[in-house]
Amino acid sequence: xxxxxxxxxxxxxxxxxxxxxxxxxxxxxxxxxxxxxxxxxxxxxxxxxxxxxxxxxxxxxxxxxxxxxxxxxxxxxxxxxxxxxxxxxxxxxxxxxxxxxxxxxxxxxxxxxxxxxxxxxxxxxxxxxxxxxxxxxxxxxxxxxxxxxxxxxxxxxxxxxxxxxxxxxxxxxxxxxxx
Length: 179
Known about the structure:
alpha+beta, Aminopeptidase, four-stranded antiparallel beta sheet, three-stranded antiparallel beta sheet, 5 helices, 31% strand, N-acetyltransferase domain-containing protein
């Protein structure tokens, strides 16, 4: 499987809008992306970068890196319907993690969030060395007024460098004072 990553340039705004508007994204904030929103993703000057994920020359997905000037950037990963389930998401997450940590020396960690019911993405996070760090109840609005739990994952530069993972200290609640 030959996967490549190509930077989306301002001249690609129309293709990006067509790509985003031409599919549905069931585990994202909005299942359907509007053209104006999509065009705003290219060249916004706010420390974001967008890359096509290509498989055998076909644009199969994209990854958007956000807040790259911050020590803790975020990302958005989207794989077209017909390419889902082929390992592209996992390969893209490994690629983007290496890209960010090698190109941005001030980045200490990378974060990503998904819906609790997105089991595939949760597996991708774990396989790429990301650790579950947060669980937000009723935090992800969806179509039809539904609300889902959101789950946050992160990877630390030091874990990425050493090939290990360190779990958060979940048992850090202060002791009750009899209240």
